[in-house]
Amino acid sequence: MENSLNLAAVTFDGVLALVLLVLAWQLLRSPNLFKAIVLFISFGLMLSLAWVRLKAVDIALAEAAIGAGLTGALFLTALDRLQRNNQKAGDSLISQPGKVIAGISVLALTCILGWTVWTLPPFSNQMLALVSSNMPISGVENPVTAVLLNFRGYDTLLEIGVLLLAAVGVLAVTPSAVMVADSAPSPILILLLRLLLPFIILVSGYILWIGKYAPGGAFQAGAVLAAGGILLATAAVRFNLSASKALPLATGIGLLIFLLVALATMMLRGNYLQYPVAQAGTLILVIEAAATLSIAAVLVLLFVGLKSDADCPVPGEDSKNFIFEEENTIK
Amino acid sequence: MTIPLLYALVGVVLLGMGLYSLVMYSHLVRKILALNVSGAGVFLFLVAAADRTSGPLPDPVPHAMVLTGIVVAVSATALALALTCRIHQVSGTTQLTDNEPD
């Protein structure tokens, strides 16, 4: 498409491409890991601009929430845990000959891939035509949602399964399921939480609903909801995962509903995940609502699991999940 | 040179930079960061390739793949970081022992 010949747009793309490369170079080479992670977060934000330029608004939304926000929070949490014991971050490089071999191999691979990309045919319309011609029977109007939840619903089903597996994996290697904060949460955080949480839930519901017609859907809604959950978890003085009943339930519900729909369609229509055309929209919304809850729950669980630390003192057994320091809250 | 081609090439270079760092550094958190940069490069290529349609609409299939990929990448990153923390707790190092230079 030669529609972007306008000078300002070309300059913007050129600068953005350069910024992406420089940020990536800096973050990979930075001797300070904290700085590297902060650079990674800004890299994610710049990348979401690139998604918008490539007309991928769905991905831009997900990248801003997950790629930049959540991944950064996970990295910072892990770094905090690793450096708590004041351990030197051993960071030896590979030997000199190894370095040369690695450099040459990667350079060769990059050149071959670059050449392949350069010689790609300029247009490719088959898949778009296929999706467009099947949009009327998909039950939704946003083509990305149609691909995710209808045409390639099987992939999304497996993906929800992968999320669940990752959560189980993180819990399996986490020695204690109790997250204890170092200090009482800041009153500013609690005030912010009170103001922000209702809006986060509202925005998440809106993104879920609008996914039928426009960019949005379960992934973005789940990520926004997870941000709220993580804020809530950071404000808690102590969070006991094993005492929580709602979180495991929410973690599993997405896969459960998805599987039930898959089995029902198989029994009624003979084909796995082939929705009846009239009910497709409703079924997709039901699956997406459950998936939103599960995605959010898994992401919160990953964060809390990573933050839980066996070295922390565990206060007396208390069945309450969240304990806020009441005297610190702003009236 | 078109805009999608520019971003696709940036994606390829990001993949190369990530791979190089992945083998260069032994610190596990650095390796996970490098993998994430490589992954971003692959995503960028896929989405740029999706913008090669002759109409105004991009191809939604790679978009759906990348959306799925981003969510899988964050869960894999969390699992890798949890394993790194566990390795650190058990062995006191942040690298794999047979990775040490001779």
3D architecture notes:
The complex is a heterodimer of chains A (331) and B (102). Chain A is mostly helical and 331 residues long. Chain A is built from 11 helices and 2 strands. Chain A has 3 domains: 1-83, no CATH class; 91-120; 140-331, no CATH class. Residues 312-331 of chain A have low confidence and may be disordered. By secondary structure, chain B is mainly α. Chain B has a single domain (3-99), classed as Helix Hairpins, CATH 1.10.287.3510.
Write a concise synopsis of the structure shown.
The complex is a heterodimer of chains A (331) and B (102). Chain A is built from 11 helices and 2 strands, in the order αααααααβααβαα.
Strand order of the largest sheet of chain A: 1-2
Oligomer: heterodimer
Into which percentage range does the β-strand content of chain B fall?
Answer: under 5%
- Roughly what percent helix of chain B? over 70%
Low-pLDDT parts of chain A are: 312-331
User: Which CATH class of chain B is shown?
Assistant: Mainly Alpha
Q: Rg of chain A to the nearest angstrom?
A: 23 Å
Question: What is the strand tally of chain B?
Answer: 0
- Please trace the helix and strand order of chain B, writing H or E for each element: HHH
Number of helices of chain B: 3
Shape of chain B: elongated
Mean pLDDT of chain A: 84
Q: How many β-strand stretches of chain A? A: 2
Q: What is the CATH architecture assignment of chain B?
A: Orthogonal Bundle
